[in-house]
Write a structure and sequence with these properties.
Number of helices: 4
Strand order of the largest sheet: 1-2
Shape: elongated
Radius of gyration: 22 Å
Structural class: alpha+beta
Distance between the termini: 38 Å
Helix content: 25-40%
Length: 133
């Protein structure tokens, strides 16, 4: 199905649904793409990137990824655990000897399981143990 073959009534329906949900859920803006057989057959931006309405969203607008990668990381680690390559409760130092955090106790005790928790903070400092950004 090429981009030209997408039915106009389906595109209009999709645009209407996205816009209705965006407003109902009070989302300032979003971008939607539909891919069929590896080809982008629809892409569009809706609303604005900021609540002040000054920056409209297009199909090319870049969004911060934020926490969207957490499920992929967790799944990847779970697959390694299932294959016996990784153990949830073994110190990361067993797999990565050069691994080091600002807190030596955390360095010695952190595990893959702890890394995947949202509350992996240093008790002594109240800060995140590490940040990849």
């Amino acid at each position: 199905m090429s981009r030209k073959e997408v039915r106009t009534d389906l595109v209009e329906y999709l645009q209407l649904q996205v816009e209705e949900k965006r407003i109902a859920w009070q989302v300032p803006g979003c971008a939607v793409a539909v891919i069929c057989d590896g080809e982008v057959v629809f892409s569009n931006g809706f609303g604005h990137a900021r609540r002040d309405g000054r920056q409209p969203i297009t199909s090319q607008t870049l969004f911060p990824i934020a926490s969207a990668t957490k499920p992929f990381t967790s799944l990847s680690l779970a697959l390694l655990v299932a294959e016996g390559v990784l153990d949830w409760d073994t110190s990361l130092l067993s797999y990565w000897p050069d691994f080091e955090l600002f807190d030596p106790v955390a360095t010695a005790t952190i595990t893959a399981c702890i890394c995947e928790k949202a509350n992996s903070r240093s008790a002594s400092h109240g800060k995140h143990l590490f940040y990849c950004g």
